[in-house]
Design brief:
alpha+beta, about 15% strand, YbaK protein, 3 strands
């Protein structure tokens, strides 16, 4: 059971767990999940971590539908930053406690601004 599932259960948030077999040759995890599960890609979201220049919050979390790209300029503006970049995959995994392709916005190891 993942930390996100434990958190949702504890908060009594209703949810369903949908499972599928991941193709290791597929890099578009969210689109693969949506297509394999027969879901609309506009209703399946990916959790992305971006690197900031703030010492107290070196990362920030962004959610976007899997059929969209994250606009780093827009996120930077929202966070009062001049420029952002995607967080390194290893750092994203270490700080969130989840593997790339399965990073949840819920119950990450560290708390960052949305």
């Amino acid at each position: 059971m993942t930390p996100a599932v434990r958190l949702a259960k504890k908060a009594q948030i209703p949810f369903d767990i949908l499972e599928y077999s991941h193709d290791p040759h597929c890099a578009a995890y969210g689109e693969e999940a949506a297509n394999t599960l027969g879901l609309d890609t506009a209703q399946v979201f990916k959790t992305l971590l971006v690197a900031t220049d703030k010492t107290h919050a070196p990362l920030a979390v962004a959610l976007v539908p899997v059929d969209h790209q994250l606009n780093l300029k827009t996120v930077a503006k929202c966070l009062g930053q001049k420029k952002l970049q995607m967080a390194d995959a290893e750092l994203a995994q270490k700080s969130s406690g989840y593997l790339v392709g399965g990073i949840s916005p819920l119950a990450q190891k560290n708390r960052y601004p949305p």
